[in-house]
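From the pipeline queue, job 12 of 40. The input is one protein chain; the requested action is below.

Action: predict structure.
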Amino acid sequence: MQASTDRSDEELIAAYLLGEEAAFGELTARHLRGVYSFALRLVGDGAAAEDIAQEAFLKAWKNLKKYNETSSKFKTWLLRIARNTAIDYLRKKKHVPLSYFENEAGGNMLAETVADEGELAPVLLAKLDDAKELRLVLGELSPKHREILLLYYTNDSTFEEIAQLLGEPANTVKSRHRRALAALKALIAPKGDLGTYT
């Protein structure tokens, strides 16, 4: 018999749906840290992030029969649930305007022309000495810019996966990524030694 740790997400889902209760627990253990980290970076509150992660897994469990592996990876589907749960939390707390969640129309032509340098964000973020500085800088970005950078650089999601998660065209996601990098560079580059963040 194949070891459970060797099974893919889809194999675990199939096993769970066939009655293997422990399979969903393994799925949860595999993805809990990523979902919690994603929620924490979106809402900035550890207790709220725990609640969001727990609710996201509960929703995933209730809707597991609806998951379609041909339309997205399980991780992408799960992060979409977590994102929507975080949006609900933020709306209730009124931390961000509802208009934040509408799709972008048009865009900033200057930002659109910024080169999409894959190494830019990791290099810039490497200048921040600790997690506190990172949280402060990311907190200065708009929620949309923060979200795209977190998904791409900390969750290792591709632009196509992010597009599925956000329900937007891949080109829109790529454009937002370029704008987010430009905003990040504007925040970090002038700081020099980043003394204002310590």
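Job complete. The chain has ten helices and no strands.
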